[in-house]
Amino acid sequence: YHMRVSDGDVADVVLCDKYHDMTEFNCFTFIPRKVLHFEIPCYILKMFENLKILDEFRIKRDILTRFLLYVKKGYRDLPYHNWVHAFSVTHFAYLALKNFQLVELGYLSKLEALAYLIACLCHDIDHRGTTNSFQQQSNSVLASLYSSEGSVMERHHLSQTLATLNTDGCNFLECLNRVDYIKCLDLIKNLILATDLQVHYRIHARQQTMAMDGFNRKNPEHRYYLCSLLMTCADLSDQTKDWSETKNVARLIYAEFFTQGDLEKKMGKEPVVMMNREKASIPDHQLEFLSDCCVCIFRILARIFPIAECLVDAINQNIKAWEKSKPIFKHLTANYATSYEILT
Ligand SMILES: Cc1nc2ccc(C(=O)NCC(C)C)cc2n2c(-c3cc(OC(C)(C)C)ccc3Cl)nnc12
Ligand SMILES: [Mg+2]
Ligand SMILES: [Zn+2]
Predict the structure, then answer these.
(1) What is the pLDDT of residue 9?
(2) pLDDT value at residue 308
(3) Phi–psi pair at 236, nearest 5 degrees
(4) Backbone region of residue 125 per phi and psi (left: phi > 0; alpha: psi in -120 to 50; beta: other values)
């Protein structure tokens, strides 16, 4: 296992000093999925450096690099829940830290910023392309481990994160003092668990109230709601890009959903419509998801950070595009098994 990341792999990343001009990269319109796959580790290191986080916590670049190369190997080769998703989620966290000046203006402590970036990188490690309910249905090992506490997949992602930190030469947090170290792991736990849709539904109303009342940095509940909101926004940030990106991401997500549906049929179970390639209407589901889930989360964000209004606008543009795509899907679906092929 230890031979999986060599010192040469680490050196390649530590020594790369390209990408001096980060102007484009620092904008909300930048599309992280367009970054060349082999360049992703270098960009991640650049983001940490650019945010002055390494100096703050005296984090060694080679140890952080070995950690992120193991994290990269921890992701499976799935259509959506893969290393590129981890990078795109982390890129949004970087944009939020930079553009909302989260640390400079006191919204997040430096430690919370560090935990936020690490949680984004690790939040879907070893995902299998199936949902929490599928873990129960299939009596998976993960369900037997975690179903009593809920958030089965998210608890597994957290466990994989801690295991990677404890791999030789990967614990870049060991230079933190004891209090910060324990606090950082606790923050990473809350952030990764916040990416469970059920957790989001449970705290969504209170996040809304927090935004209406005004964020109070002295209130520990507000700090938790803000961190969770920033996490779900990062996880959904693909939806704030342009229409071609939105269509591409939908194709990837439904490739996973339909594969799960196929698996469920083989198990003699009826999949939910959204995962059934014979019955799903991608535009309808996406309209529902964007209107009922996505845009609401980003509206709360925009209430706290007005410059995030552009992200709400981008989602609304994509909602309009899904509406316009419906007649085409309706017409074409008659000839296709599902509207999925049209997205390819
Ligand atoms: C474009 C897009 N469409 C989606 C359509 C449906 C669903 C879904 O899970 N429906 C529930 C059923 C399966 C039981 C999720 C979708 N989705 C997510 C996503 C968000 C998540 O949760 C947070 C981050 C807390 C919101 C967690 C996991 C995922 Cl894959 N990311 N992008 C998407
Ligand atoms: Mg997840
Ligand atoms: Zn995710």
Answers:
(1) 94
(2) 98
(3) -105, 5
(4) beta
> 187-210 pLDDT, tens per residue?
999 999 999 999 999 999 999 999
Task: Say what the ipTM of the complex is.
Answer: 0.97
- Point out the residues that are catalytic: 81
Give me ligand 2 centre to Cα 55, in Å: 30
Residue 92 pLDDT greater than 50, yes or no: yes
Greatest CA span in the chain, whole angstroms?
62
Pair of tokens at residue 47: 């983001």
- Mutating to test ligand 1, I would choose from 245, 289, 298, 315 the residue with most ligand atoms within 8 A of its C-beta, which is 289
Residue 99 dihedral angles phi and psi, to the nearest 5°: -80, -35
**How many CA atoms lie less than 13 Å away from 61 in the CB half-sphere?**
21
203 lines ligand 1 (CB under 6 A): no
Radius of gyration of the chain (CA): 20
Backbone angles phi, psi at 4, to 5 degrees: -70, -25
Tens digit of each residue's pLDDT (9 = 90 or more) over 132-185: 999 999 999 999 999 999 999 999 999 999 999 999 999 999 999 999 999 999
Q: Is 174 exposed, middle or buried (0-12, 13-18, 19+ CB in 10 A)?
A: exposed
Measured in Å, residue 191 CA sits from the centre of ligand 1 at: 16
To the question of pTM greater than 0.90 for the whole model, the response is yes
Q: What per-residue confidence (pLDDT) applies to 1?
A: 47
What is the DSSP code string of 216-244? -TT-HHHHHHHHHHHHHHHHTGGGGS-HH
Ligand 1, atom 26, lies closest to the CA of: 197
Question: Mutation test of ligand 1: which of 85, 192, 236 has the most ligand atoms closer than 8 Å to its C-beta?
Answer: 236
